[in-house]
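ok so i was messing around last nite and threw this chain in just to see what happens. nothing serious, just curious
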Amino acid sequence: MSDNRSAAAPHVVRLPQYTKADQQEILGKGDDPFGVASAGLTWLPKEEHFGIRHEDRLVAHAGLRRLPVAIGDAETEVVGVGGVAVAPGMQGQGLARLIVTAALDHARTMGPQHALLFCRAPLVPLYRRLGWHPLDTDVRVEQPEDRLVTMPLRTMVTPLHDGARWPSGPVRLFSLPM
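result:
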């Protein structure tokens, strides 16, 4: 039986770091690999990184960062998920589900009750299939020079623990977005 796919099933590994070169290995050398440059935002780097390698090449990534947030009158923390990328030639093979699931498994050990991400509108259906829910409220995020701006991308959340409920009220991230 002949098959062009590798016999080994893809698996997720923790990455000790994630560099611009790693991102380019996955997405190529474009100026706007995530399609969000028009938002004009400054982003925080992630602190925890997960990757999938295929034939010695990094083909998928997801990063995490714990962040302070206010939801209504309550201050808490969320795990920010970002830098989710799958190499164009590897899309459609379940790698996004695999990498995001592994990242969320780790996020459950970090303490916060919810994970939060920002994405472009065309990606909302993908994240919905992965169990995320769009917020129906604006989210304010910090930017350089003490600016507070409304996040122009779609904000989505998912619970990290059984029984976790997202509170109602306006949302403010006490940091740059991740």
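not much to say yet. Residues 1-6 have pLDDT under 50 and may be disordered.
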